[in-house]
Amino acid sequence: MRVNRWTETHSFNISWVDMNIEAAYSRWSAIYDTNTNRTRDLEGAVAHDFLSSHKFTDALEMGCGTGKNTAWLQTKCDRVISVDLTQAMLDIAATKVNSPHVTFVKADMVETPWTSFVTSKVDLVTFSLVLEHVQDLNVVFEQADRVLKAGGRVYVGELHPMKQITGTKARFESAATGRVEEVTCYTHHTSDFVGAAMARGWTLERLDERFDQDDRTQLPRILGLLFRKGC
């Protein structure tokens, strides 16, 4: 698999700013790894749990961000393509992972054909806290299906829709402005993920809901899904 290396909890008593996705994550990148973020941390644990027993040849990591999962993912795969919309996030990820087997790509997962940076099929596609920024799941699942080998797997780790409908979403406090910057998000229910996957002939291998401090009396924070493409 050969690709081109790129060249190019929320209780704030302050005002809100709605930003486009790329601009928001560019500003967030400076503090993304260091600010308190239970969603980021719990999703990382879910990804490890879902994928640790598997070994992959070629993986495509969509929405790699600052590389929070990339360093670990490279230990499970022979080669990894890690894709993000935001150059500032990719720059940070590249400081964490220095491997000839990991390639970082700047691309819009909705607008850019994935075959432009994936030239041979992969056996794993991952989505971590990124599909909430996609309005139509079918668009990205169709792209994933085109580059996924028969028998390949798709991992999804997202903020739980029950959290979303009660007001939790991707947002951060800007150190520069002192305002909360809220990222454009869309709510996808569990049936939306499963329906879009089944429309491509994928089967659901695993579904899990994860809670803060494993307290199941509260709303779940993370929805984890693992699909497999038919052989």
From TrEMBL:
It comes from the Eukaryota. InterPro entries: Methyltransf_11, SAM-dependent_MTases_sf. GO terms for molecular function: S-adenosylmethionine-dependent methyltransferase activity. Residues 60-155 form the Methyltransferase type domain. It holds the Pfam family Methyltransf_11. This is Methyltransferase type 11 domain-containing protein. It comes from Aphanomyces invadans.
